[in-house]
Amino acid sequence: MLKSLLLILFVAMGVFVADQALKTVFVEGFRYYTQCIDLILVYNKGVAFSMFAFLAESLKWIQLALLVGVVGYTLWLKQRCYLLPIGVMVGAGLSNVADRFIHGGVVDYVYWHCGFNFAVFNAADVMIDIAVVWLLILNYKPNMCKS
Fold this sequence. Notes:
single chain; 147 residues; alpha+beta; four-stranded antiparallel beta sheet; 4 helices; globular
């Protein structure tokens, strides 16, 4: 179990550091505009599409508790195939939670507006999506996940 926890933490730390470094570029003033994608700075006080912004300060604690629960549940399952995607998810999630503590909201910077206006998001959001798809594939292809 200790090896599993260390692997999750190692992967999470790598994702966290990379995401925070990228966000720092935008916090320090980088902007770039194109016809389809703008790289801008937005602080999201909620979660996806600014939902649950009304939870304000409580949101970061709820998200932190959920991340701890995800790690605990993963360790309880004892399925090694889940460790990497959970590490990615936890690192990205912790990066977004850290933004809430440091900046009062999640640092978002990719704004898609080609053909339609989409929500502003960041690399951590993409990493969380990748981890969720990875976990879904592992769950629906049981032969891919052996203890």
